[in-house]
Amino acid sequence: DTKENISDIFPRGLSQARKNQPNTSASSDPDTEQSPHFQPHIHSTRRSVKNSNIRDVCDKVRTWKLQFNGKTDATEFLEKLYELQEKSNISTAELLPALFEVFQGNALAWYRNNRDSWTTWGEFLTDFKLFYLPV
């Protein structure tokens, strides 16, 4: 009987892996990085995300009934997430702290274990792709 710790399953080393990846984007801002699989809707004005607004965003995200458990198609998940985010007029800065609403199981453990290392949507997206869409 072997018990695994969350940190054994989902290492915190993704930020190091991100640093080792070649930068193929012409943009120096990872928040505006374009991807063939996911093109986030970025609002031209950046807003600070206030606690009351986070609650509102979480409530909205919960109504989407979008879920990702790590076993389903990651590309399809990102595309649907983009569509819902754009339709709801939620910025990526607002969506980032509300993502726990869409993750389940091992994917939720991965999110919880890595969320403190993300300060931008681009950082999350890079780590998500490294883990769920390996080359």
From TrEMBL:
Residues 17-37 have a biased composition (Polar residues). This is Retrotransposon gag domain-containing protein. The lineage of its organism: Eukaryota, Metazoa, Ecdysozoa, Arthropoda, Hexapoda. It comes from Anoplophora glabripennis. Residues 1-50 are annotated as: Disordered.
